[in-house]
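User: I'm putting together notes for a lab meeting next week and I want to include a structural view of one of the chains we've been expressing. I don't have a solved structure, so I'd like a prediction I can at least talk through. The sequence is below, exactly as it appears in our construct file.
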Amino acid sequence: MSTKKKKKRKKKQHRFFWFVIKLQIVLMLVVLAGFGYYYFGGYADQIQQMRREAVQEVSASDDSTFIPSQTCSVFDKDGKLISERRGDKNAQYVKYEDIPKNFVAAIISIEDKKFYQHNGVDLKGLVRAVKATVMSKLKKSQGGTQGGSTITMQLAKLIYMQPKQTWQYKVKQMFLAWELEKRYSKDKIMEFYLNNVYFANGYYGIDAACHGYFNCELKDLDVSQTAYLCAIPNRPSNYDPVTHPDNTITRRNLILKNMRDDGKISQEEYYEATKEEIALNRPKKSDTEKINSSIDTYTYDCATRALMEQEGFQFKYYFDSDKEKKSYGEAYDELYSACQKKLFSGGYKIYTTIDMEKQKELQSAIDDTLKGFKDKSKDGTYKMQAAAVSIDNNSGYVVAIVGGRKQDSDNYTLNRAYQSYRQPGSSIKPLLVYTPQLERGYTPDTVVDDHKLKDGPSNANNTYAGKIPLRYAVAHSINTIAWQLYDELTPKAGLQYLKNMNFAQIKDGDYTLATSLGGFTKGVSSLEMASGYAAVENDGLYREPTCVKSIVDSDENVVYTSSLTEKTVYKQDAARMMTDIMTSVMDSGTGRSAKLADMPCAGKTGTTNDHKDGWFCGFTRYYTTAVWVGCDYPKAISNLSGSTYPAQIWKAYMSAAHEGLSSLDFLPYAQLSDDFKNQQKQEEEEHDKMREENQIEENQTDDQQTSESQQKDNTTDGSSENDNQPDNNDSNAGDQNNNSKPEHSGDNDSGESGGNTDTPENGENTNKPDNSGTTDNSGDTGESGDTGGGNVQ
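Assistant: Thanks for the context. Below is the predicted structure for the 793-residue chain, given as structure tokens.
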């Protein structure tokens, strides 16, 4: 067949393909119209009521309706004001004539190309959205779907509605959009929209975003910065310049391309704008704002999720498919944004459990311990960072939370304590391995065998302790024991304990033995570790961490009251035995340096390979505190281990927190019966016998190989040059490049780092799925070292 005929045939196939697609869309619309007539005919009264409501709501509006002005207030445990925030972050309302033309052009190019042609609802746009979705499914692409909401419909959602996935919601949104178009001009609608749309990090409206990210006036923005800001509103959590700067740049470039194609900028302007590097320039904070920064971000997140809960949103952490995860993430983001705007601009009062004295002590402990690390990134953020969370064991509420070191830069927005996910090292062992096994018959005195493992981790210097009590193995963080017990338990069973405590970033790749030593794909947050250890202290009962006790609206109506529910994760006796074992960590093990002088305490160190992350997690009867130390971009830090900086921070804070409190001993665990002890002893003897038999067989095999080798040597020169050389198969030489075989380093508690440790991890809400495709432990300008929910929650 000739090339000409092939092209002609291909063209016919292409036409036929598009004919089929168009026919499907037409048929679908016809079916929808018929279905709508049949179905909605029974809802005519309801639809008419929604139309009347839309008319009334828009008619009752005036310009002040679109100017967020009420203040959101946060109070500490004693009812004292901590901070205040307006929905516009104290920004100025911008009239249409003062909005740069490029800003309008940029937002139209990406959000609503037919803005000046439609009457509030773009029916053709809805068809295009259906078509794009069909094509993306056919091509199995990820980015081909489009939304059908116009800017006017988005404004209606921002001002009048709370997002819901129902047909009634969409119908009323359309009615509101039509009414807005009748009442206001296009320019006025654009003005309202740009002053209310969310730009992430608490910035509502273009003036707040401009000053918040670039610390300049709107008129001073160049076209690249303008497109950069316009990239955010579509999905603020995904295009957040602080936590996902690469995503923001990618969308900025798309907007610039659209502006060029629309004739709003030239090819040369497009080229120059895409080459421009974006540098955030965020305003400095007062000393009070620096201390309260971590409180604000966490409190607003807890309060926003509380309002979502009131709306009936069901938080999820794990999903059966990527499609389910994506759908959940979109619904989460939409409602989160709406509830946060409602919170910031609705005059709400948030009453928390934050203890400001403890907050200051925790911040000081971090700042003082790390004051010698002065290196900063380009944006002024300290490279060496820390995060910590403290929970009141009596109530279960968070009393202090610090997301990083105190500093001048407003790039400190990221709260590493709940938004960042890092490798936990051996600090995960009590939650993942030991307490579960204590439920299954192990005790602190159970004898375990520290020996060389064929396919497992090696100990430092390739030495092994042999038969030792489990208590000793935990106290000295012996990796071979954790590996063996986890192998016996199985990763599936162990990880379920973490999932039961809402650890948000458990991935498919975590179902390996490496997680027993802290080798996760993404990692854990300080908040998760604190709540997990608090569950051990609380006799195995888990309580979802929060600092919000109640929320009151502008009319003094209580709209939310927290009531922490307890969920059994570990058996009481197992939790108490684990606590008892961890007191030995403080007395004679890797946590000796953190031991409190006059208060019984229990804890565990954690250190990852190459000393990139250090942890100390522990508790008394009064408080549980988890501390992480490391760099936002994971890098080896000399002398960083769980027993150094993290332990120093933990001890400094906990000593201050317990000042004046009476000494309280931990509750005892039940003693085992003689029958159970005899049964356990019998099992140990059988195990020892099997080990001896296996050793005899191994020795016989070795003797045979030695004999054959000697016979071979005798046929040459009668000696062996390698008699004194170690067998490479028995050395630790190969472990250096094998992440599944970390070295045990005694008090340094070096575990398995695993995961994506050489890339920054971008923070997100822990109750939302991670949709970024990257890790989730974010630095303020991508300078970070996961998500969560996500984000997912």
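A couple of points you could mention at the meeting. Residues 674-714 form the longest helix (41 residues). The radius of gyration is 30 Å.

User: Perfect, that's what I needed.
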